[in-house]
Amino acid sequence: MSTRPLAWPHGVPALLLGLFAAFSAGCNQEDSADASTAKKPSDGKGRVAVVVSTLNNPWFVVLAETAKARAEELGHEAVIFDSQNDPAMEASHFDNLLAAGYDAVLLNATDADGSVAAVRKAKERGVPVFCIDREINADDAAVAQILSDNYAGCVELGQYFVETVGEEGKYVELLGLSGDNNTGNRSDGFHNVVDRFPGLEMVAQQTANFDRSKALEVTESILQSNPDIDAIFCGNDAMAMGAFQAVNTAGLADQIKVFGFDGAADVIDSIRAGKIVATAMQFPKTMARQAAEFADEWIKGRRDFVQKTPVAVELVTRDNIEDYAAYGSKE
């Protein structure tokens, strides 16, 4: 019996290889299509991750819970992830939520530069990121950024500062997180006004990381060497509450005027009680709802988003306090 290999007619092997390649390509395309549509629910409902910088501040709790609630009202599943002001933890959250197949991310970033890599990773995986309140330093990573107009808000707050403190005096500034653009924008807006008055002397400028306990500690230390100051400008309301606590304990509440920024519940109550002088309301509920609605629109097919959506900030003082409630205007 012959053991010679089977001789194919000329051209047949090439034909069969071509057919096999076409069949394989078709299978691969089908697999790829399945993978790309797995994240796009056919019923327009999806899973939304709310990644917030910290839940150790009531203001951010309101931001996160409002975003989650609005996403759920729109029919989506929503879960909150707490980054604890740690960019490494935030990056880990992104790895986990991308592996879990979330359809959109609402991000309150930990760091303007440090958060960009995680947002780009999500973009590469086809998962849109919508930034809330805290900006990232990239215009081609997040789909949209909904941001308070911090600079303009602090220009107005700076004007009120001069009106109430006067054109001469000594003051202290407490700064927020160094990696957050809000810190610089608020400080720059404030100094755009105050620095025009040479009689106003800043005797100390220190970081308190947007944290109430840290602000208490820092203010206590400053007051030991500067008990004769006239005012303290704080980059957020948590720091304002810590600063006021230190001032009050030192028996200087009638002498030192404290200013905040946020519109948090405790500061609104404090202004109403005649303690803290003023704050700036930056409407976290408005920003959170807008971000959730943008995510909903993306899941349903919209792609034409403006990169940055500014949200106006309003000055809150003892004169207009009755127009405001915690985290917004009275309804």
TrEMBL record:
Residues 1-24 form the signal peptide. Belongs to the bacterial solute-binding protein 2 family. One of its GO terms (molecular function) is carbohydrate binding. This is D-ribose-binding periplasmic protein. Residues 48-302 form the Periplasmic binding protein domain. Keywords: Signal. It is found in: Cell envelope. The keyword tRNA processing does not apply. Pfam families: Peripla_BP_4 (PF13407). Gene3D superfamilies: 3.40.50.2300. GO terms for cellular component: cell envelope. Its main location: other. It comes from Botrimarina colliarenosi.
